[in-house]
Amino acid sequence: MKTLTFDVVILGSGLAGLRAAIEAASSRGDLRIALVSKVQVMRSHSVCAEGGTGAALRPEEGDSFELHAWDTVKGSDFLADQDAVFRFVRMMPEEILRLDHWGIPWSRRSDGKINQRPFGGHSFPRAVFAADKTGFFEMQTLYDTLQKYENVQIFNEWFVFKLLIHEGVFQGVVAWELATGELYTIHAKAGIIATGGAGRLYAFTTFSHIVTGDGIAMAYREGLPLKDMEFMQFHPTGIIPSGILITEGARGEGGYLLNNKGERFMERYAPERKELAPRDLVSRAEMTEILEGRGFEGPNGLDYVHLDLRHLGRDRINERLGLVREVAIKFAGVDPIEEPIPVRPVQHYTMGGIHVDIDGKVPTVEGLWAAGEAACVSVHGANRLGSNSTAECLVWGRITGEQAARYAARAKHTPLNTENVKAAEAYLQSMLDKNGNESPYAIKHDLQRTMDRFVGVFRVGDELEEAVRQIRELQKRFENIRVVDKTSIYNQDLQTAIETSFLLDLGLVVAEGARRRTESRGAHARRDFPKRDDENWLKHTLARRTPDGPEFEYIPVNITYWKPVERKY
Ligand SMILES: Cc1cc2nc3c(=O)[nH]c(=O)nc-3n(C[C@H](O)[C@H](O)[C@H](O)COP(=O)(O)OP(=O)(O)OC[C@H]3O[C@@H](n4cnc5c(N)ncnc54)[C@H](O)[C@@H]3O)c2cc1C
């Protein structure tokens, strides 16, 4: 195995990773930074973000940091850490302006100012957008900006499968170059995990196939705690039958949800905010309509409701929601100018992640940070508001990039622990050698079915127990897999096997965490415990790996400003 030496290694080139790389590179020109991604930079999942990035830009028109913070905390069902939320909202406007200066084509108002659209749970139009391709333009702008820095080396299509941590100190990662099959140790003083969420735990998801929770699972395997993993977001408008996202921007622009009686049913569930209530609430409302027989019958049990944009008119749809129209025509055969779009709740975001402090620092490991969807700071608590995720990636990309660079400038490389490196090599070889009779693809498929079926919008104790039982069974089956392709170049079989093993670890944490949390809060809605229970459950979950499965402990939420109250919209 070859060894490369860098000061900082960043895992992931989505919004969080790119922002971190720019910050680290620009803060110290003499640092050598490695940016590693299992896909080409611009194929990172962040390019899919559509609707917008939240920031309180307009005090003169009535918005404020406090209002953005309040919306976020209330949206989180009071599980967000309020000190982190305040830091977040204060830093966001600067990030929007910075991207503007770096050349992003933000959509503008007729007075030339940056435009903002309404988003669910926000009490002010706060989502800054670039039509409905916000993530693509943000990624392109960051990627272009990064080209200025010669001290960053990008490793595209390098698959990291092991973190090297020795005696509480981060030492680097082990990566596999997909195009050649070569193994490398990247020896570094500081690391930032920005590998995204775990959306592909589910089959009906808005996430790309590459989003398999790798960084979160690698941290878990090193004994690091994962926070609040039971909180999975379901977005109200996944298109039938693929689950591709129809952005909340569509409702922000004025789209309605209708049941099979033609009723605008959100008037009953959230009289004031209607379709622009937070996602947990709208998803539950849709499922209730469907379960009570007021939905439309869809393929493979994917019953749905209608999202109606027709009243917005051709010009507005084409100008503001061009991608939505294209997706609806291509993937559902429906032109939203003429017909409503069939939609239902779809897995959309991992609120939990690697437990980090307010600086994105992993508390127990020297030299290690995490940012973006892989991390749990926690700004989103039990339910993220739309537009706050791309925003979080920018803020904690910047913070972790700056902190990791500062640390790396004064730290020294510690001698690599060769046992860890050898163990990584042996692990990869053992996976490649697997010659049993189970298919990793089939196991992944079965895991997704279990999660879709039992760990969805509504949950109930015995179904969660069944999910846990099935996932443990799948873990046993996984021991007997066969990796058919034994070659070294672009070995998709081997990659899928490793990703599936990561997902199995995380699936168990999600299902078991959900089983234990006997209350309903944000996106975690228990039919058998329908109320929020602040007395017993106003706390973060931490899950640690043991040989028998996850072990749980609970830590307090930082409530620095607002006491929890009932959420009404
Ligand atoms: C369809 C869609 C639309 C969305 N729209 C919005 C929106 O409008 N506003 C908003 O705020 N949020 C939105 N979100 C959420 C938001 O896009 C994501 O939460 C955010 O982009 C995640 O960014 P990230 O940098 O954390 O991770 P990602 O963009 O997922 O990047 C992860 C990176 O890690 C790399 N990686 C992963 N595993 C490995 C490995 N083993 N080895 C090496 N590299 C690895 C990947 O190659 C990739 O570069 C949307 C989400 C979806 C699914």
Describe the structure in your own words:
With 569 residues, the chain is an alpha/beta fold. It has helices at 15-27, 65-75, 82-101, 134-146, 214-221, 249-252, 266-269, 279-291, 314-320, 322-332, 388-410, 418-432, 440-454, 461-478, 492-516, 534-537; strands spanning 2-5, 8-11, 33-37, 53-54, 116-117, 127-128, 152-156, 158-166, 169-177, 183-187, 190-193, 226-227, 232-239, 256-258, 305-308, 341-350, 353-355, 368-370, 375-376, 458-459, 525-526, 539-546, 549-556. The chain folds into three domains: 2-231 and 351-417, 3-Layer(bba) Sandwich (FAD/NAD(P)-binding domain), CATH 3.50.50; 236-344, Flavocytochrome C3, Chain A, domain 1, CATH 3.90.700.10; 419-542, Up-down Bundle (Methane Monooxygenase Hydroxylase, Chain G, domain 1), CATH 1.20.58. It contains 16 helices and 23 strands. The strands form six sheets. Strands 7-3-2-11-18 form a five-stranded parallel β-sheet, covered by helices on one side. Strands 19-17-12-22-23 form a five-stranded mixed β-sheet. A hairpin with a 2-residue loop joins strand 22 (539-546) and strand 23. Helix 1 runs parallel beside helix 4 (134-146). The radius of gyration is 22 Å and the shape is globular. The mean pLDDT is 97. The protein binds flavin-adenine dinucleotide.
